[in-house]
Specification:
Number of strands: 8
Largest sheet: 4 strands, parallel
Oligomer: single chain
Number of helices: 11
Helix content: 40-55%
Radius of gyration: 20 Å
Structural class: alpha/beta
InterPro entries: AdhesinB, Bact_metal-bind_prot9, Lipoprotein_PsaA-like, ZnuA-like
Shape: globular
CATH superfamily of the largest domain: Nitrogenase molybdenum iron protein domain
Protein name: Zinc ABC transporter substrate-binding protein
GO molecular function, one term: metal ion binding
Keywords: Signal, Transport
CATH class of the largest domain: Alpha Beta
Family: Belongs to the bacterial solute-binding protein 9 family.
Order of helices and strands: HEHEHEHEHHEHEHEHEHH
Number of domains: 2
Length: about 300
């Protein structure tokens, strides 16, 4: 039912936009001196603001604290995107609505920018009885600081194309962000390398890139999407593994359901710590003026404690 509703919504939105064009009422909301950019995931919003600086006005379409895997844009969201100069999306399958958005606004003068362009996604081993709805590729590339550098580069190049006169500022801002991401990469590398243990229990399989980049081993309670719940047998096997390996922590997320992870906690006597998957910036972190870099550093500290 939800998919049929979403499809109908996009048809209505497309009709409204085309109608506006026919009547000559469609217009861009941005001034000629400032680009308006709509992003999907919080890291893309952060990267775009850092790189664009004074030359951009950026807003994220997915509300704070919302699960990006299941989000569907409203009519208001679609009109907002169609009135932007550019729509920046991850492009790894996590935004199930992205292709429909691109199709709807392709004739509206909106530049669609795939932040993950040129990146090779890691394959995921998913449960046979619970197939991965994203295929066999892990979409959570923004959690890898090295891949984030390439995403930021793609955004920088797109902004230069949209406003060549601001190229010097965009490049300067990108290089500053790149330096910060390189420091973050070093923090992850040193923390995990120097930890006596390498396994973490996580609420869902969002941290595969830490495995491939730094040698960490994630043991997820749920699949790539939080809706991919384990079977009873798999849950029992996980509980046995936690006990056998004397794992002391289960790592939960602020934006994901922790029901099954709490079962593991209860059955094993483990404690819980919080990871940020950063799909969205939760209101509590926004109020505390946290950002991508500060929250990723908090993730480093969580790993340091959980891997003791």
């Amino acid at each position: 039912m939800k998919r049929h509703y979403a499809a109908l919504t996009f048809m209505i939105i497309g009709s409204l936009i085309l109608s506006g064009c026919a009547n000559g009422t469609k217009h861009k909301l941005n001034s000629p001196h400032k680009l308006t950019i709509t992003t999907t995931l919080y890291p893309l919003e952060y990267f775009t603001k850092r790189i664009g600086g004074k030359h951009v006005s950026v807003s994220n379409v997915i509300p704070p604290g919302t699960d990006a895997h299941s989000f569907e844009p409203s009519t208001k969201d679609m009109i907002k995107i169609s009135d932007s100069d550019a729509f920046i999306y991850n492009g790894t399958g996590i935004e199930g609505f992205a292709d429909k958005v691109n199709e709807t606004v392709k004739n509206e003068g909106v530049e669609s920018i795939k932040a993950a362009k040129g990146l090779t996604l890691e394959k995921v081993e998913h449960r046979d009885e619970d197939p991965d709805e994203h295929g066999d590729k892990d979409p959570h590339i923004w959690l890898d600081p090295v891949f984030s550098i390439q995403m930021a580069k793609n955004i920088e190049q797109a902004l230069i194309k949209l406003n060549p006169k601001a190229k010097a500022d965009f490049t300067k801002n990108y290089l500053s962000l790149k330096k910060d991401l390189e420091k973050l990469d070093t923090s992850f590398n040193q923390t995990i390398k120097n930890s006596p243990h390498k396994e973490i229990i996580v609420s869902h399989a969002a941290y595969g890139y830490w495995e491939h980049r730094y040698g960490l081993k994630q043991i997820p309670v749920s699949g790539l999407s939080t809706s991919q719940e384990p079977s009873q047998r798999q849950l029992q096997d996980l509980i046995k593994h936690v006990k056998a390996k004397h794992i002391h922590y289960v790592l939960l997320e602020n934006s994901a359901s922790d029901k099954l992870a709490r079962v593991v906690e209860h059955e094993t006597g483990t404690k819980t710590l919080k990871l940020r998957n950063l799909e969205t910036l939760i209101p509590k972190d926004a109020e505390a003026n946290e950002d991508y870099l500060s929250l990723m550093q908090k993730n480093v500290q969580v790993l340091k404690q959980s891997l003791k």
